[in-house]
Amino acid sequence: MTSGISNHDLFENLRLELRRGSLVLAVLAALRKEQYGYTLRKTLAEQGMAIDEGTLYPLLRRLESQGLLISEWREEEKRNKRFYRLSSDGRVILKQLLAEWQSINSSLNGML
Amino acid sequence: MELLDRYLRAVKFFLPRRQQDDILRELSENILSQMEDKAAELGRPLNESEQGAILKQHGHPFLVASRFRNTPVQYLIGPVVFPFYWFVLKILFWIGLGVCALNSVALLSGGEPVRQLLHGLLGFANVALPVFGWVTFVFAAHDFFQAKFRLVDKLNQRWDPRSLPAIATTPRKVRRSQSIFGLIAGTVYIAWLLAAPYHPYLIFGPAARALRLAPEWHRFYLPVVVLAIAGLAQAAITLVRPEWTWLPPVTRLVSNVAVLVILRSILKANSYDFVLVADSANGARYEIVAHIANIAILCTLASVALGLSIALMIQAWQCLKEIRQWIRRRGNPLPSRIS
Known about the structure:
Helix content of chain A: 55-70%
Strand order of the largest sheet of chain A: 1-3-2
Strand order of the largest sheet of chain B: 1-2
Mean pLDDT of chain B: 82
Oligomer: heterodimer
Distance between the termini of chain A: 25 Å
């Protein structure tokens, strides 16, 4: 490559960029069912959407501050954990985002 | 879990004060859950290196904390303004370097070359750093206000494509008329230079009988003649090879450097008696005339030196442009519409 970036690095950058846009959608979708940070991360990884802790935990707080998630501290297995779930605004946004994602998907399928 | 406590304390240091406890409680719970999962998988408590591996996976405390900060991305110079900022810095860098190099060249002719060279380099650093600071400050202030008052958005709304400057049609060749004029003017100038020592009237006009040039001028006579011949040669060459558009600016640049070196030597001399009263003349009347002529010559030479210094910087820039375009044209004989 003329820019000094190998094809592998370039692909990796583009792949991460592509996934980054889908992460919010995945998190919102996964939080239709209440979960706390660590179990949410495991759920996403099991579904093939692995996300590192450094990205997920701040993202949860951001989505909560935007009113898309609601959190609650609750005791589970003798420990206090913060559980997140989708708010009513979050449900509306998720529905809109899913429609947008499906539209993008069908457009791309048409082109490919 | 001493290692986890140390990690959390380190993260806490970088977190916004108001959110510290909340974030740390949550982070602590998530890491503990992860460690418990791992311990259950191994069937034994984790040792210190296994705990360390999990913490390392979370990242450096500074990075972890920075991701929790809600502050927007901050720039000193934003991406919109940055290209202009970089352009101005580059221009000023080359101008500063040019001035210092010129000064060093001039000083070198005065002896003590190593000391003068070091002096020139230090002088550049002394000038460059404050300039860099001030330019950065001005652009940072500009960036701050343009973000605050959305100046770029306003500019974008008002912008009209028809207001763009027309593309200058730069000649790809040195004009024939320009070379012919250079040849004629150069020939006349050289003829005048060669005749002047034998016919003082050509310099002093009617005062030729009373005034004469000081002997110091003879030192510079030959270099001046050589420079004039170089100018004439350039005009002759570009008449034959008009596609060598780089030659006129390069010749002007070299000539101007040489003239500045000569001027420097003249102005450095202790005596400013450029014109003397001729032996054949008598009387204090001519002393006054010579004195006035010397002051006028001194002022003219100083002004020329200043003007040439400025011209030199512009010419250096033009030279670089010409040489770059010439190399590009040689590599790509089909010129693009916009070069």
